[in-house]
Design brief:
The complex is a heterodimer. Chain A is an alpha+beta fold. Chain A folds into two domains: about 5-45 and about 260-400, no CATH class; about 65-245, no CATH class. Chain A is built from 14 helices and eleven strands. In chain A, the strands form two sheets. In chain A, strands 6-7-5-8-4-3-10-1-11 form a nine-stranded mixed sheet, with helices on both faces. In chain A, helix 2 (about 15-55) runs antiparallel to helix 13 (about 360-390). The longest helix of chain A has about 40 residues, at about 15-55. Helix content of chain B is about 35%, strand content about 30%. Chain B contains seven helices and ten strands. In chain B, the strands form two sheets. Chain B has a six-stranded mixed sheet, sandwiched between helices. A four-stranded antiparallel sheet of chain B has the order 2-1-4-5. The chains are: A alpha+beta, B alpha/beta.
Chain lengths: ~400, ~220
Amino acid sequence: MGASHLPIKNLLRRPGRTAALVLLTAFLALSVFGGSVVVRSLQSGLDSLQARLGADIIVLPGSARSKVDFQELILQGTAGAFYMSADSLDRVKEVDGVALAAPQTFLASLKADCCAVKVQVIGIDPEADFTVRPWIGQSYARELGDMDLAVGCRVTANVGESLKIYDQNCHVVAKLAETGTGLDTAVYCDMATMEKLLAAAEKKGVTHKLTSDDADVISAVYVKVADGFDPEAVAAKINAHVRKAAAVRSRSLFTGASDSLEGASRTVALLAGAVWVLAFVILMIAFAMMIAERRREFAVLLLLGTSRGGLSRLILAETALCSLVGGLLGVGVAATAVFPFTALIESKLKLPYLTPDAGTVAALAIGTVAATVLVGTLASAWAAWRLSRTDPGVTLREGA
Amino acid sequence: MLKAENVSMRYFRKTGEANHFYAVREASLGLNAGEVAVLTGRSGSGKTTLLHMLSGLLTPTSGTVTLDGADLYGLKDGALSRLRNQRLSVIPQGRSAVDTLTVLENVLLPAQLAGKPGDRAAAERWLNTLGILALADARTGELSGGELRRMAIARALFQDAEVLLADEPTGDLDDANTALALSVLQSAAKERGKAVLIVSHDSEASRYADALYRMDGGTLERVE
């Protein structure tokens, strides 16, 4: 026996009580969905960063700042430049265990009339490169030509437009897919274009010369270790063999980021867990109070012919409906709070941050709402069960 | 029709030397179609407890309650609740309204709990008989005690069950409405063949009795 309209009528005609329960469950959903999206975005950002680097070892100039500058460039997109002699590339290649070695040269444009935007320009050698080209290949099938640029997704220039860098007109031929890292604010060109830009920068007083003669320079060498070789040992060999350069495991470059991510994930998970436990206890108390307050009403339903099972279902339906609305509201509020402020969150966390794709976000939202409904329903289940086990006569007397 | 045989209700409570007491002790009574039985007694004498046991709401610690030979407490939850919905109607003491529903919705509720829409015209007829048709669309929170009591009587009559058990049905009513309520219950027995039990403090109720019972300290006796 049942009256399926009763739970809805009960909820709609007690707006204050319903609103309190909905807000409680909404808070639960908000904390879980918001926390999950942030942690997932950080995880995706770090995964994306590791995929983009794609090298076992990165060789940087031996100066104390270069490693920090490199990390800031990759993680936060801070434009910077550091150089070592191009001979370093040949020396790296000589080391036993080096399968691939690809140079990159960095140049920071200026926030001045000579440059359309302040960006990090990264020159790659298309023939040797094994990290950036696959990424460029996702949006641009051809090779980068003279004065061609592939721009990160956050650079305010579109395909077909010109971008002035040190008074040189470059053509934007590709806009790259988002990585959630500092690489999204960089632009890429081939080494020939980079040489012209370095020369133009030199004329503006931005020097990259290491010595008085015009030796070729590079900023980093990305190394792929041959199968069967220990990257740690190869890095050590490079350090011994190449002067004024420092070879580091790419993983160790971002140990800090990884640790921070782990810490952030742990904190968010801990907070979300605490919120769930707290919310569960509060919900249990709230539902128990609500049921106690309505004992007489429930007893009347029993004496009019509702079965004990039917009464439990009525209570569970009401709490499930409240939790469903609360879950949807919480997810909605969390989405409104998290997605528009992605850039702010990223800048505050100083970690790679890549929002998951729509499918993952939808799955997280559905999972959160389902979990909220489950927790809300479970919280009322005990009180409903107790009520259903009591003789209606006792309930009538107690509720009098 | 409805028969109680040696029903007792024992509660655990420290009372003098004993650690339990009997709210009802081995009470037996039968309700027949077309008859009004009236049960009187002082407060705390066990009247409401007996009524709850008769209506399938409270499992006796001993004894049996049968309706046309079927043991109420031998039935499963679903069957007993169907019986309460279709064959037994109860007017409980105190408030018995679902406050989120209107007066008319409360009267229609037994039918809706059985999965039927309910005969709105019949419900309105009973509200009219009890003098509260004008309140049909009012929420029960807006009603006085007397109006709520008449709504409960209208609902029990609308339920059209074979047995009607009323616990202090005139408790909140003035003299005129007391007379109206008692005569409506009597009509249910005499004109529609219902078996009616009225539990009441009100000596006025005794005037409508075909059978009169009195309870004292949990013991039931028939008054000849």
